[in-house]
Design brief:
About 60% of the residues lie in helices and about 0% in strands. The protein is mostly helical. The chain is elongated and about 120 Å long. The mean pLDDT is about 80.
């Protein structure tokens, strides 16, 4: 279920209640967006540094005045650089996968989506072409094996103990059976 105005209206919320829900949701999402933007900026900066370092290594390797010993050292540095770059790309892919799973878990009806992450093997999760994790089977399995982790979808209506609204003003012509008994004693 998408988090939209129409979906909230289907749940019976008024426009004012919907505005309040979106305001509360914004308080949760905005720090996450800021953190994401900061991470993107840091990632872009590191990628630029890696590209510049790679270009410098290539320029040094092609320089004719560089000795054989220096060229061997540069090749060693290039190898280390390639290993570091591959490791950084793998870590970035893992971080993206964990972030996607964490965001997907927030859409479940779990009591605590962050704690639910402990039950999931991140390496076993595949991302689809849109970058969304395939969690349906795992979540359904957890709902069966550990139902206490999730809010129960209860379709039973809650009982009405008191009638809604204020009682009618003015008098003894109400439908109150106790009032009829009291009025009967006075006659």
């Amino acid at each position: 279920m998408a988090f939209t105005t129409e979906a909230l209206q289907e749940l019976g919320l008024t426009q004012e209640q919907i505005k309040e829900v979106f305001a509360l949701h914004g308080k949760v999402i905005n720090p996450l967006k800021a953190e994401l933007e900061e991470s993107k900026g840091a990632l872009e900066s590191l990628n630029n540094q890696l590209t510049a370092t790679g270009q410098q290594l290539e320029a040094l390797k092609e320089d004719a005045s560089t000795s054989e010993e220096t060229k061997k050292a540069l090749e060693s540095l290039q190898s280390d650089y390639d290993n570091y770059k591959a490791k950084a790309e793998a870590e970035l892919a893992q971080t993206k996968k964990v972030s996607a799973i964490t965001l997907a878990l927030k859409d479940t009806n779990a009591y605590n989506p962050d704690k639910l992450m402990k039950f999931i093997d991140v390496d076993a999760i595949e991302l689809d072409k849109d970058g969304k994790p395939q969690l349906t089977e795992i979540i359904d399995g957890l709902k069966e094996s550990d139902p206490y982790l999730f809010k129960q979808e209860d379709d039973t209506p809650s009982p009405t103990i008191l009638p809604p609204g204020n009682p009618q003003a003015g008098g003894s012509e109400s439908n109150d059976p106790f009032q009829a008994i009291i009025d009967g004693y006075g006659k």
